[in-house]
């Protein structure tokens, strides 16, 4: 396996036509973005429409030092704009009205459609008017639980047009998780679909929403309106059966079908002018205490940064077709399916299904069908596709591809090479983009025409981003070394707060190292200055790119009356990256058996979502604890991978526990 010394230069043909075509050009632009951030971002901001002009004398202010006062970040404060206006009206005015904004590709290959910028604008205005009719006003939260269909994007943009704050929840989360999020943001209106096919699986989205809304009502919060897209009746089911929307249970007075109210609404809607620092959307991400955090992004900075990263990181040119496979329920879907591409008048593919339906070459079929130039997916998808015959890739014409993106977790060199050689034919650049829900956009990444690639390294900071590595005591590590990955100043799309909880925002991200935004990840800097993200340094797990906390899973396990204590650690997994390995201690009367294991796995699926199902549940008569009672997870991680090299265990209250746990590892774990 080539080591980190192996460096892959960008294809010279790609470099030649790229916006940034050499390391020296990158360095020059980067330096300007750091030395003169107001000028750098100010020039970019001028390409957008501002209803109230930007005050360039006070372009951006911030405080990252908790010892000096409250944490805040402001960009272009006081200027007003509307992101929907900039994404749609501005592009239509600039001659892109007939340009395709989205090619929609359904789960079934027979289902597809397209939408131009002009038509998208009309649909957005219609739905914006519907939202207004339903009493939704600037600042109100709208919950969205949608499959990958065009109405999801229409919904998001309609919210932004009237200044409502959308709060999407990935439609793979359980009713419990969804209810918790609706309650936290006090959503007044919910948008969903009757259901959707993912491969051969039918997702009953409306019924999950019904359960979630019922749970909210029990807690005293009533969702006033639920708009339902009748989607199943218009698509081809894998079995060829016909679905009728009459089957969808609708609660009179609350639930209404999209097709019964949207088509007759007016196709124009004057945009609400929003301050640059007004909330744009919120999106929940897991927190290490178990309670999800409502990350809040604001309007102006997010718009400018999403647009800029999309342009440079994918080197998007006007006739290109771009495809990001991420679900819109995640931040990648927000910034790089919706906001970034539309801000650049791009043409994108929106795909509803899985990589495996109807065959394991669906991704490559779609790349060929739409002649995709930039393809953006996750390492877990790459790893699951690597298992199949090369022929599934090689039989398709993938010559349109120029840039291949990776996001969500570190990409292992083996997957990187497969992606580079087999999919990219050694002609394409791979952009390994490191970022977070909180960062709003890419923060570490190579640029495809300029930065030589090292497999597994997210390379260099994007413009305006200043990464720092710190040791445990908060001392900066200069040059080569490994430490906590932090940032010493904000870029325009850094989250501004956690919804209704600025205290938690300050403690989670700004308290450990005053003066820095703390990512929660570790990273290493090599001799060339490249950054290698090594993974979470907190109690978070990344399963197939889904972030979750050990605490939230432990809380679910201990809810079972047979369980007295639980500890969850991550174990490396060949496809998912990491998987959940759970240790449970039963109560005096509890019995550890197959039934309990099944119950616990089911509980995690139901409370969080199917993607969170644990791989292993091990009986732990006792857990390795220090004398002060702290569980030593380091040791549990060793047991999970059956590595006897556990290191120093002298601080354990009872060290015999370790041998016991090694001996009782379940077969095949
Ligand atoms: C966490 C953020 C960014 C959108 C998807 C996930 C990990 C993400 C990379 C990468 C190494 C990565 C980090 C980060 N991560 N991208 N290219 N290399 N690690 O968003 O759910 O907020 O998760 O994902 O651990 O902190 P998220």
From TrEMBL:
Statement: the UniProt record of this protein carries the keyword ATP-binding: yes
Reactions that this protein is recorded to catalyse: acetate + ATP + CoA = acetyl-CoA + AMP + diphosphate
The AMP-binding enzyme C-terminal domain, residue ranges: 552-630
Any one GO BP annotation for this protein: acetyl-CoA biosynthetic process from acetate
InterPro entries to which the protein is assigned, alphabetical: Ac_CoA_lig, ACAS_N, AMP-bd_C, AMP-bd_C_sf, AMP-binding_CS, AMP-dep_synth/lig_dom, ANL_N_sf
Domain (AMP-dependent synthetase/ligase): residue spans on this chain: 94-496
Stored PROSITE patterns: AMP_BINDING
Gene3D superfamilies in UniProt: 3.30.300.30, N-terminal domain of ligase-like (3.40.50.12780)
Keyword entries, A-Z: ATP-binding, Ligase, Nucleotide-binding
Pfam families, alphabetized: ACAS_N (PF16177), AMP-binding (PF00501), AMP-binding_C (PF13193)
EC numbers for this chain: 6.2.1.1
Family the entry assigns: Belongs to the ATP-dependent AMP-binding enzyme family.
Protein name: Acetyl-coenzyme A synthetase
Lineage, highest ranks first: Eukaryota, Metazoa, Ecdysozoa, Arthropoda, Hexapoda
């Amino acid at each position: 396996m080539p080591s980190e010394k192996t460096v892959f230069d960008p294809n010279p043909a790609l470099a030649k036509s790229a916006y940034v075509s050499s390391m020296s050009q990158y360095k020059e632009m980067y330096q300007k973005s750091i030395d003169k951030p107001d000028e750098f971002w100010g020039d970019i901001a001028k390409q957008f429409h501002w209803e109230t002009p930007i005050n360039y004398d006070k372009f951006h202010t911030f405080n990252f030092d908790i010892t000096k006062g409250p944490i805040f970040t402001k960009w272009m404060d006081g200027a007003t704009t509307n992101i929907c206006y900039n994404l749609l009206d501005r592009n239509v005015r600039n001659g892109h009205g007939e340009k395709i904004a989205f090619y929609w590709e359904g789960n079934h290959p027979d289902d597809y459609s397209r939408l131009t910028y002009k038509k998208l604008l009309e649909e957005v205005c219609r739905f914006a008017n519907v939202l207004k009719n339903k009493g939704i006003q600037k600042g109100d939260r709208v919950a969205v639980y949608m499959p990958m269909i065009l109405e999801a994007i229409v919904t998001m943009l309609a919210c932004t047009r009237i200044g409502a704050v959308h709060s999407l929840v990935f439609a793979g989360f359980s009713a419990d998780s969804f209810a918790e999020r609706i309650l936290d943001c006090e959503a007044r209106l919910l948008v969903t679909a009757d259901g959707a096919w993912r491969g051969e699986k039918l997702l009953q989205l409306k019924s999950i929403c019904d359960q979630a809304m019922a749970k909210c009502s029990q807690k005293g919060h009533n969702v006033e309106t639920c708009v339902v897209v009748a989607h199943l009746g218009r698509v081809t089911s894998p079995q060829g059966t016909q679905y009728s929307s009459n089957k969808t249970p609708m609660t009179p007075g609350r639930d209404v079908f999209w097709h019964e109210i949207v088509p007759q609404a007016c196709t124009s809607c004057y945009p609400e002018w929003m301050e640059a620092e007004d909330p744009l959307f919120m999106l929940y991400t897991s927190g290490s205490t178990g309670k999800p955090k409502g990350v809040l992004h604001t309007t102006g900075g997010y718009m400018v940064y999403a647009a800029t990263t999309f342009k440079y990181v994918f080197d998007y040119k006007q006739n290109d077709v771009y495809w990001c496979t991420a679900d819109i329920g995640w931040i990648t879907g927000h910034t790089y399916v919706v906001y970034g591409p539309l801000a650049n008048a791009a043409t994108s593919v929106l795909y509803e299904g899985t990589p495996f339906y109807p065959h394991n070459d669906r991704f490559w079929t779609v790349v060929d069908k739409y002649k995709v130039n930039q393809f953006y997916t996750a390492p877990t998808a790459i790893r699951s596709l690597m298992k199949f015959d090369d022929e599934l890739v090689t039989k398709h014409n993938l010559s349109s591809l120029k840039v291949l993106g990776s996001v969500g977790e570190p990409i292992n060199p083996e997957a990187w090479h497969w992606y580079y050689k087999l999919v990219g034919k050694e002609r394409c650049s791979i952009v390994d983009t490191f970022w977070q829900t909180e960062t709003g956009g890419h923060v570490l990444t190579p640029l495809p025409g300029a930065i030589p690639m090292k497999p597994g390294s997210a390379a260099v900071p994007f413009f305006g981003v200043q990464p720092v590595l710190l040791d445990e005591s908060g001392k900066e590590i200069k040059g080569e070394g490994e430490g906590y990955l932090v940032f010493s100043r904000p870029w325009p799309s850094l989250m501004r707060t956690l919804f209704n909880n600025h205290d938690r925002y300050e403690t989670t991200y700004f308290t450990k190292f005053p003066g820095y935004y703390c990512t929660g990840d570790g990273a290493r800097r090599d001799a060339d200055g490249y950054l290698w993200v090594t993974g979470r340094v907190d109690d978070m797990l990344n399963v197939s790119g889904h972030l979750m906390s050990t605490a939230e899973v432990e809380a679910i396990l201990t809810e079972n009356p047979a369980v007295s204590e639980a500890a969850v650690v991550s174990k490396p997994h060949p496809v998912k990256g990491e998987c959940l390995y759970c240790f449970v201690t039963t109560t005096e009367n509890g019995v550890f058996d197959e039934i309990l294991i099944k119950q616990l796995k089911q509980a995690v699926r139901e409370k969080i979502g199917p993607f969170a199902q644990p791989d292993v549940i091990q009986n732990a008569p006792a857990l390795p604890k220090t004398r002060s009672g702290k569980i030593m997870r380091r040791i549990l991680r060793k047991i999970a991978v059956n590595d006897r090299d556990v290191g120093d265990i002298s601080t354990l209250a009872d060290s015999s526990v370790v041998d016991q746990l090694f001996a009782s590892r379940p077969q095949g774990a």
